[in-house]
Amino acid sequence: SHIGTLHSVLGKEEERQMLHQMQALAQKQLDEFRAEIQRRDQEILAMSAKMKTLEEQHQDYQRHIAVLKESLCAKEEHYNMLQADVEELRQRLEEKNRHIEKKTQLAMQATSERNRINNELSELKDHMDIKDRKINVLQRKLELHEANQKLATGAAKAGEESSILKKQVEEQKRQLEEQRRKIEEHRKGLDTRVKQVEEKEKSIAEYEMKLKKRKENLDQREAQLQKGGGQAGGGAEVVQKLEMELEVHRQELEKSQEEIKRSQEEMERLLQLVQMSQEEHNQKDKTISDLQQALKNAQAKLRSQQTANAQREQARKAEEDESSKEVKINNWENGVDELEELLSVVRLKEERIEELEEALRESVRITADREKGLQQEEVRRKQIMEKVGKLEQRLLSLQTAHALRCSTCRPLLTRMQQLERRLTQLLDERGEHLQELTQMKQEALEAAISEKDAHLALLEVSGLRTARHAEEAEQLRADRKRLMDRLKLETEHSMRLLQEYTPPPPLNTPGDNVSLSASSLSSLQGYSQIDQDQLDNDERTGSDSSV
């Protein structure tokens, strides 16, 4: 019985220990479960906060996408406005092209008219030289005739010479009348040309008013675009560059106006030259009148002398035969000496004329050398322009390849390329016009120098008899020197213009702006796609964590 009791006590003790161990193990597992539950609760809270943050980011992305859509719509509207502005600028350029063509035609007409006037003036100068020489010869003959009339005994011979001189004077007068009529016709032509220049100035003033109104409209549109904010930044740059191009055209128009004013000044100078020629004609008319009066006086003196000689001849015929013969011989010898002296003076004048012709040929040679230098500069400029054109084509091809991604940018890029080609053509025409105007100035200065040389030669041939003639010759030399200096300055100025003239680079900015906008839009779309993928990954991670 004790043994059974012992066994029962031992069994209960083991059961109690086993139960205690099981309770401790269960308590341990329960603590572990509680810790695991707390950890899971913390993870759930963290995932909830993360889900809330992701939801807020998703809402921000949705709002950002809406803003981008609105910005895209606004840019589309702004692009349409820019396209309308480009169309308006194209119309302005076409109108300016028409004005330039009209002015080119007028300039060509003015050039042909100026050449015709210069040719006629040259012919008039030649005629005047011939007439002046004839008048000088007639003056010498008249002086010799007056000297011979004092000693002449035959009235018939003196009468014949007087009639011949009278006929020659009448012929000179008739020719001078013809020259005066031609000069009057030239003056009428110049008046017509001045009226045409005034009409051109009026048309240019009207064109400036229209251009000013269009500039005000463009400024108003630019102000409206600036009110739209930073969304229209790229378009505003395009409008600004188009305005710069318009300003360049306006400056070209102002230069054309200045050149027209200079042409008008040249026309006024030619008119003054014609007036000077008219004054010279009047002076020569006066000289002819003086010669006619002197001829009449000589004839009256001859008649009175013939009467006196007839009265004295009857009384002292025998006594004066020998003396008259001696006087005639002496006078004849004196006349021969004077004639030889006159021939020597004529030879000196001819040598002076040859020197002047040599100087004129030298000036022509210098002008030819300058023209040759200008042609060489033009060839070098064309080579440089070809290189620049190749670089521009290469740059344009790169820009075109870069802008192919933007489907809405191609029409604008094509249109801007057309405007660039048109601008290059206008600049080339401007260079040609500048060269033509420079050539016109040089020809006018050379004609004025030739005219001064002709006047100076006439004065030297006729002889500097009075102080007024000497003063006039000095004035002509000073004017000729001033004209030569001015011709030199004009030639240097034209050379400098040809060397400095380089056309501006083409406006490729619109294509770059369009490409930039397209790349920016693709970057924003890529950024939105990356955020959306990240959000999907976070949602999948959160779902896995929750599970």
Automatic annotation (TrEMBL):
PANTHER family: BRUCHPILOT, ISOFORM J, ELKS/RAB6-INTERACTING/CAST PROTEIN. This is ELKS/RAB6-interacting/CAST family member 1. Transmembrane segments: none annotated. The keyword Coiled coil applies. Keywords: Cell projection, Coiled coil, Cytoplasm, Cytoskeleton, Phosphoprotein, Synapse. The keyword Coiled coil applies. It comes from the Eukaryota. It is found in: Cytoplasm, Cytoskeleton; Presynapse. Residues 296-312 have a biased composition (Polar residues). One of its GO terms (biological process) is regulation of synaptic plasticity. GO terms for cellular component: axon; cytoskeleton of presynaptic active zone. Residues 313-328, 537-547 have a biased composition (Basic and acidic residues).
